[in-house]
Amino acid sequence: MGKYLNVEDVAALLEITPSALTKYYLLFEKYNYRFHRNYQRKLMFSKSDVELFRKLILLKNAPDFTVEKAAVKVLEANMAGDLGSKIELLIEENKKLEQLIQHQNQIISMQQKQQEMIEELYKIHKKSVNEVENCVKKEKMSIYK
Hints:
145 residues, mainly alpha, two-stranded antiparallel ribbon, 2 strands, rod-shaped
């Protein structure tokens, strides 16, 4: 199966009529489920959409279920699954961010130590320059005596 299928392909795959599929997708859209449309605005269905239709077809035939009740139940289950996978992705991203922050904190700590060393070296350099200047002054003074 390619990336997207049209109404006729999905209907044939599910062994239902295109008009039944139209009824099902309109019902899903009634409850704010959105399907892919191509650049010509023609409706296209993904593998996950086809699975939603399969679940709807199975559930609508269960006792105490209408097509509409089945559609609501299938969409609720789909949303719960989507939410669960999104939460898992967010947890993984959060772990990666925590590791990145920890690494950045290590870098900052190293930079602070380097800055302290630079400041200490600058003090030593300044002291050495002062000593050299003092020696030069003393030497000049001794020449004039």
